[in-house]
């Protein structure tokens, strides 16, 4: 009997409409545990080398993990993997809400999608069955409207929907997958991949609750979630959500401002978590934000999600499209020099309505604003829109034009790196991308281990792939659980900080494979520490796993992502940072004058490769490493990979 | 003695709303960082910087006019 997981993987070929069910052995689940690692197993097996990301041959995997759907905080997450149309590398994005748990209840752990339907369809997975249904009437609808129609059509208000919006249909390269009309598998353009397949939505419903191997121990772990709330500060994280970090980031000189040219925004208080909570969450007029302005994921006690509503004016916004996270407040706010909270709330809602990643969207606009400020773009390019820093009106207008691929929005819909290739004129100097993915709102000049993670991460610049520098010193007893006992001075970029980066990356990678929440399980501020993550897995599955095995799952997944890039011919030459991080010192605030030293950074990157057992010259994983992780088959089954992995 | 305190992020809730996280506190002479946190009823894990220095331990004795910044480490988004 399987505990935690259903034991069923759904395979859907949209070209032929063939649907099959695979029932892997327990060892398969123990090896990958779900999420990104499980998805990569199929992507590596079934995607041809050199596949065009928006072609039918690209394989899209949507995977839960072995603890998804059990009643404990932080387990309802789903990971999507496929080759990314934004970066040309592997793509990977996580999202939460109620969809992941409901997908498990529908009787399936994962769905692997290939091919392209001749006409728009949606996949209806319910009570252990699955079918493709016509979605012609849904194509072109916003996420909110499509979800309403599906609930009506299926006569069930409790269905959960993971879908693309018009941006995914229009193949915007940073289109997202959206559930609940406000939760996003945001990064790397997974929405464009789904759009290219004419798949509008995956709809799930079921009652198959996962069985728990050790209910007594599980209950104790559930209770710990409550008693840990105050000591970890996760109670106030719930109250203010991720936006609580906005002003602390600013204070440390790490709030990206004016397209990463400064780490300090003089109007940070207008866009921080306190202001959002006090003045912009639904119900704030009656001091009832906790009831009406916060939302949560399946079985999670934190309630960190924001809900805003604007009843009138140019930024009128419906509550069903949620509210902005810290990343969104930064990318549409400080990146663009904008402090108009209503405009940011509205831009966030547009991204959720049309289905786009708020990080890449806001950062692509901030790149265009810097190009405008430098005279590289004019109103001739933009169709008369003045893309000035600080212009909330231009930012909101451009967000909508990107989703619809209208006017200049058609170029920005390619993402900033491809847009700079189209425009030329030296606009590449202002990019803030790694592997073509726009940098999230944490600054490598200030938290320096991130400089190597942003560059070397197989799916581009990412802030959730490792712990950030200050955590090493701040959480010594939690770091010790994963063997990190030697915290370094602030701004250090040495071998020990690379070990910190790599080991915490392995843990984060395990978190993304188990497909659990990075705010609930981890090695620093989270509700549960890394040891408790191991205990939750054991209590649910009945396994006897330990920290070594969990970290190996994370390392396995990281090497699978890396190997995907290697077989595409992508190695060390793609592990780069934006030029400006080396050449342009930050201006103002506590990080005034900060930049990265190229030689010191290259040395750190090589330390990181050595620690990972990746070839320093090529950046490819070694055969020895692949073998030791049980990934010899990945090399053996792929000629292109066997030529570069030695 | 008087010290200047600034509480960042969600820690603003440990001071009255009107102070928006910034205040001048009067503490007994020779109060330590631990005494200060206890005075504010802060039980959660925080980082304390005294005059910009984050390396002082909980037993560090504060002085008149110290600038104390209290913040948390949350790295998500």
Structure description:
- The complex is a heterodimer of chains A (about 650) and B (about 80).
- By secondary structure, chain A is of the alpha+beta class.
- Chain A has 30 helices and 16 strands.
- Chain A folds into three domains: about 200 residues, Aldehyde Ferredoxin Oxidoreductase,  A, domain 1; about 200 residues, Aldehyde Ferredoxin Oxidoreductase Protein, subunit A, domain 2, CATH 1.10.569.10; about 200 residues, Aldehyde Ferredoxin Oxidoreductase Protein, subunit A, domain 3.
- Chain A has a six-stranded mixed sheet, sandwiched between helices. A six-stranded mixed sheet of chain A has the order 8-7-12-9-10-11.
- The longest helix of chain A has 21 residues.
- By secondary structure, chain B is α+β, with helices and mostly antiparallel strands.
- Chain B has one domain: Ubiquitin-like (UB roll).
- In chain B, strands 2-1-4-3 form a four-stranded mixed sheet, with no helix packed on it.
